[in-house]
Amino acid sequence: MSIAYKTKTDVVREKLRKDILEGRIKPGCRIIISEMAKEFGLSEIPVREAIRRLESEGLIQYTPHVGAAVSIIDENEFFEIYLIRIELEVLATRLAVPHIGHRALSKLKNLMSRAEAAVGQGMHEKLGPLNKDFHLSIYQAGPYAHLYKMIVDLWDKFEFSNRVFSYVPDRAAGSWEEHLRILKAIESGDADTAAELVRMQKHRTKKALEQSLAKSTGRVPGKIEPVDPVGIRNA
Average pLDDT of each block of 10 consecutive residues along the chain (235 residues)? Predict the structure, then answer.
């Protein structure tokens, strides 16, 4: 069995990434390149490259003449958009299921297999893109292009939600079991069940994100969350 070689940049990136995701480096905290280089016993070059990569992932923000800092998430805006997304995605699922043919179903099964393999290998960084592809493949099968575009635009607004399985790795196995139930409902042509399973899966993910953000900020979960219209309606 071959051992993957890690560059100096990889080592710095993985350590910084882990510290950010696990809340040891808080949102807004400055990343001093010279200090990081001393900590790792390296030159500043691999540290700068690691920061550049983390910036591309949305974990770090770089401001000219100021420096690098851990990205700050506008939680109120994030959860407002997430709640809107849930309702749109439930609707899109219900409308799309009757239009999902053999080709789209085969793609969903392939994505499911790849996700199960990633979960088994503990490769949580692969799950975000697979999760996004799985859901958008469902919605794209429907004939409602404007609805699909609205969902994509809202999804892309916060890259943070696409990395939920890196932030909350314990969520991975349970979430993909939920995806499997969604897939089975789609395969049987049960649009209403598939839609409600999507709703439940999204709300569980939302709760996991709340807990992750609370851990990283020291805030009590739910303190700043907007009112949940779904919760009011179902109360």
Answer: 70 88 79 93 94 84 89 80 94 98 96 91 81 95 96 76 61 85 97 97 87 64 42 35
Give me the half-sphere count of Cα atoms (radius 13 Å) on the Cβ side of residue 161: 25
Instruction: Count structural domains, the chain.
Output: 2
Burial category of 52 from C-beta neighbours within 10 Å (exposed 0-12, middle 13-18, buried 19 and up): middle
- Helices 33-40 & 44-56 angle (0-180, nearest 10): 120
In this structure, are strands 30-31 and 60-63 parallel, antiparallel, or unpaired? Answer: unpaired
> 182: phi > 0 → left, psi -120 to 50 → alpha, else beta; which?
alpha
Tokens 């999804």, residue? 155
Give the burial string for 59-80 (b: 16+ CB within 10 Å, else e). Answer: bbbeeeeeebbbbebebeebbe
Domain that holds residue 138: 75-234
Residues 95 and 56 occupy one common structural domain: no
Say whether both 94 and 36 belong to one domain.
no
Whole-prediction pTM value?
Answer: 0.65
148 and 203 belong to one structural domain: yes
DSSP state of 70: E
List the strands of the sheet with 67-70, edge to edge: 30-31, 67-70, 60-63
Please check whether residues 172 and 223 belong to one and the same domain.
Answer: yes
Same structural domain, 111 and 168:
yes
